[in-house]
Design a protein that fits this description.
Blueprint (H helix, E strand, L loop, with lengths): L1 H24 L5 H28 L2 H28 L4 H4 L18 H16 L4 H17 L5 H20 L1 H4 L1
Helix pairs in contact: 2-3, 2-5, 2-6, 3-5, 3-7, 5-6, 5-7
Length: about 180
């Protein structure tokens, strides 16, 4: 009986997620919205985070240690989400659903989980743990990166949620072992 319920449940979830993704993606039909989120997404490719790492690294010995913590955690995150994407092979929404418009070029073929969101959440949590004053800048930016991935038709909401959870878990792990890095 459970085997009969599960496929129906997954189908309903998939339909609801597709519908939500389609509604969010509709906003990208407006050029200013699409361009805004494309810029945010592009910054989330790494540019913003590399500049933040550089700023930490140049701020002194303690900042350099924070930069190293962020960089090493980022490498682990890249390895993890790369492995998941190539094992789970979930096609991106714009590939799977004709009604979803592509708003920016994807970095790769598969969508689950969102690497942009993983890195944004991970870097934000590590950076703000050390410099809480950065939260008013980094938290909204991270939320915009996560939203951009769905608006641009590159990810489903569950891809973004999974990326956020993985990023939070990696950051938590890095912060727990932080005393070993001092």
């Amino acid at each position: 009986m459970a085997a009969l319920v599960a496929p129906g449940l997954w189908k309903r979830f998939d339909n609801a997620e597709h519908s939500l993704c389609l509604r969010i993606n509709r906003s990208s039909r407006h050029a200013p919205v699409r361009h805004f989120f494309a810029v945010i997404s592009r910054l989330g490719d790494g540019v913003f985070w590399y500049l933040l790492l550089l700023a930490f690294a140049l701020s002194g010995p303690q900042g350099a240690t924070v930069a190293a913590q962020m960089a090493l955690t980022g490498i682990v995150g890249t390895t993890l989400y790369g492995q998941l994407k190539h094992r789970l092979v979930r096609e991106r929404p714009f590939i799977s659903h004709a009604g979803i418009r592509l708003g920016a070029a994807p970095l790769d073929r598969y969508s689950f989980p969102s690497g942009h969101t993983l890195h944004a959440v991970c870097c934000t949590l590590i950076a703000t743990a050390h410099v809480p004053e950065l939260a008013p800048i980094l938290v909204p930016f991270t939320l915009l990166i996560a939203a951009s991935r769905v608006v641009l038709g590159l990810h489903y909401p569950s891809d973004v949620l999974a990326g956020a959870l993985l990023g939070a878990g990696l950051a938590r792990g890095a912060l727990l072992i932080w005393p070993l890095w001092r």
